[in-house]
Amino acid sequence: MKITSKIFLCIAAIAMVSFFSACEKEDYGSSSEKQYVHVDDMQINVESVDFVMGVNGTSAIVPQLSPSTVTPQDLVWTSSNPSVVTVDNNGVLTAHSDGEAIITIASQDRSIVKTCKVAVSHVKLTTLKLNYDDYTLREGGVMNLSVALQPANAYYQNIAWRTEDASVATVENGKVTAVRAGKVDIIASCLDGLEDTCHVTVKSNTENITFDPYVKVEW
Questions:
Q1: CB distance 137 to 104 below 8 Å
Q2: pLDDT tens per residue across span 162-217
Q3: How far apart are CA 5 and CA 99, in angstroms?
Q4: Which helix or strand (DSSP H or E) is residue 14 part of?
Q5: What number of other Cβ atoms are within 10 A of residue 172's Cβ?
Q6: How many angstroms separate the CA atoms of 92 and 86, rounded?
Q7: How far apart are CA 150 and CA 182, in angstroms?
Q8: Which residues of 87-111 are buried (b: 16+ CB within 10 A; e: fewer)?
Q9: 23, 104, 108, 155: which has the highest count of C-beta atoms within 10 A?
Q10: Mean pLDDT for the stretch of residues 111-118
C-alpha cells in the first residue's frame, strides 16, 4: 500500500512539472513573437519642412495610411524635444516654449518613418501683404497672389483666401481665375485678424484694355 502511494505521488509530481514546463514554454513563445500592425504606406500633410507654431498653440499632423484599417494610434509618435513641443498618439501637437523639435512618425516595426521639423515662437505676426494691390485679367485668365509676412520669426496660422464675388473671379490657395467681366476683391487673411486685399478687374475678351503703369495687366 505504501509503495502504491509513493508511485502515485511520483506520477502526480511528474505530471505537475510537465504542466508548468509547458505553460512556461507557451508564455515564452507568445512574448517572443511580438505582433506588429502592418503599414503598407504612409504620407503626412507636412514633411521635412518648417512648421511654425505659437507658444501654447495646438495643431495636428494628419497621416494618410494604407491599408485603411491602420489608424494613427497604430503608429509610434515621438518628439525630439518635448520641452518645446509634445505629440500624442493621435498626432496632435502642443507647443510649450520657444525652440525647435523633430517629430518622428513611424510604423511599429519602423519599416516606414516620416519626420517633420517644428519651430515654436512667441512672436506674433504684425504684417500681411499681398504682392499686388490691383490686377486686370481677361475672362478665363489666371494670376497668382502670394503673401509676404513680417516679422520673419513670427508664427502664423494658415492663410485663408476668399473672393467677394465668385461669379467674377474665384481664388484657391492664391490662384485667381477670372470668370466674367466685372470687379471683385480678393482677400487674404489669417486668424490673427490681419488681412490684405487685391482689387481685380476682369475685362471681356472683346474689350480694349487701357494701359495703366500702376496696374498689373494679364494679356
A1: no
A2: 999 999 999 999 999 999 999 999 999 986 789 999 999 999 988 766 555 445 55
A3: 77
A4: helix 2-32
A5: 9
A6: 8
A7: 32
A8: beeebebbbbeeeebebbbbbeeee
A9: 155
A10: 90
